[in-house]
Amino acid sequence: MKLKTLLMGAAASLALAPAAMAERGSDGALNIIMWQAPSTMNPYLSGGTKELIASSMVLEPLASMTPEGEHVPRLAAEIPTLENGGIAEDLKSVTWKLQEGLKWSDGTPVTSADVVFSGQYCMDPQGGCSQLAKFEGIESIEAVDDLTVKINFTEPMPDPYSAFVGANGPIIQKAQFENCLGANAPTCTDQNFNPIGTGPFRVTQFLTNDVITFEANPEYRDPAKPAFATATIKGGGDAAAAARSVLETGEYDYAWNTQLSPDVIAGMEQMGRGKVSAAFGSLVERIHVNLTDPSSSHPEGERSTNAHPHPFLTDPAVRKALSMAIDRQLLTEIGYGASGKPTCNYVPAPEAWASPNQECLTQDIEGAKALLDEAGWTVGGSGVREKDGVQLKMVFQTSVNAVRQDFQALIKQWWSEIGIETELKTVDASVFFGTDPGSPDTLQKFYADVQMYADNFEGGNPAPYLAKWTCDKAPSPANQWQGENISRYCDPAYDALLVELGKTVDPAERGKIGQKLNEMLTKESNAIIPLIYRGTASAHSNSLGGVQINAWDSELWNVADWTRVQQ
């Protein structure tokens, strides 16, 4: 292992030494509020951040990311490297070794068979795995022995830390999920709501879109952790109520995603009960353009699918005009203050991958009008542009959130100035970011023309994040509406360049290819319209120790180390 990794591990051990001396469960109850309530505990069936965070209390990957973006072992004994022989010299395989003595919360041993099965589960073509991009380029996963797993790649893989790294790539128990492969995956309710895990807690009750209760995992590998005997994640409400419950009333210890205006947060913090902490990783608030037709005039199962291209959003001029009309600087000032930065990039970090493109940062209403004029979209008597009998009328949806509703109102006004009529739609966050394939209001179904939300990727390798946008990953009934390509973007040139990325070893060249892929999604096609590079912000009580906000992994990545601080 590299010296830097060893030093970081030593420093972390020293920092956490006082907590390690505590007795498991000695600090009582931990209360967390997530106003976007989790709808499953299986992150392979949800791309939503709320599900990843909740499930990380129970399910663990082979390795995690620190707040600094460094890899650290979780279930693995060490991080594989070229130096220790874990990464093959030809870069076509990586070998992971599990820690000895690991147990599932039911007391059975964790083995390499569980890791192999976890890969089979996600890579099943009928399973609709939300994290499929993390397995891009994998040829096979094999158990060398009970504690050793070898992942083989189809081509040299310069960054093999994708599958099973981070909260969205956990190891699930083969014995529990072996009857849940493929199309059966979403039907396994008990497994998806109550997974057997290796993390510091285990589920005692799961009420979808409401509350999850946990107890300390008696089989957790560190006998002194977690410090809390029980934990509760309460869902519902809104960001403001969640923040107040920590910063003003003290009812909760931790409030996830306090997405509120800077002045509101400052007022709450004056009570002296807690504070909001933020960290920048890869989180971007953006608008997705639906390149397929969501009209209810189509039969169910054909709406928002490639069977019906969108009647006007397939016009590049319309998509570009939508972006040109937006004042990103103003949105940042009113919505995020110092915890946000206007951006034109879908991938804002690491630096080598971030495009220098800044064209979209200047609002250009008149330029947008001229572009639409040139494309033949003329203003009709109602003030709405039209062409060949098609009017520029859209439904713009997002989750219920005060900042997002402010953004919707402003963007609707700007779009009206260029002749586009917009109907605003809001969906409860638990539904919008949910996983129910029968719901018409999930972000995956995308029964609207444009929609706004944010997510991020873990670690310093954006390649799996960019791999979401290949033609074969569009949500549809065939994959339980769990595909990752939300905009239904499809460009064979993009797919080919992604293959080239997978074959490129030189870090500088990988960054250049990543920038090009980012630009194809954004300024060249405007299938994705980036708005703001956001810091991950959450509120925590002054009585809660050990919290380290992490923008590269689950925010609860080190919940095993949290303690109650006496004030």
From TrEMBL:
Keywords per UniProt: Signal
Subcellular location: Periplasm
Cross-referenced CDD domains: PBP2_thermophilic_Hb8_like
Highest taxon listed in the record's lineage: Bacteria
Pfam families documented for this protein: SBP_bac_5
Signal recorded as keyword: yes
Solute-binding protein family domain: residues covered: 72-469
SUPFAM superfamilies named in the record: Periplasmic binding protein-like II
Range of residues in the leader sequence: 1-22
Residue ranges of the region described as Disordered: 291-313
Major localization class: periplasm
Regions crossing the membrane: none
PANTHER family xref list: MONOACYL PHOSPHATIDYLINOSITOL TETRAMANNOSIDE-BINDING PROTEIN LPQW-RELATED (PTHR30290:SF65), PERIPLASMIC BINDING COMPONENT OF ABC TRANSPORTER (PTHR30290)
Recorded family membership: Belongs to the bacterial solute-binding protein 5 family.
The protein's name: ABC transporter substrate-binding protein
The species this protein was found in: Paracoccus acridae
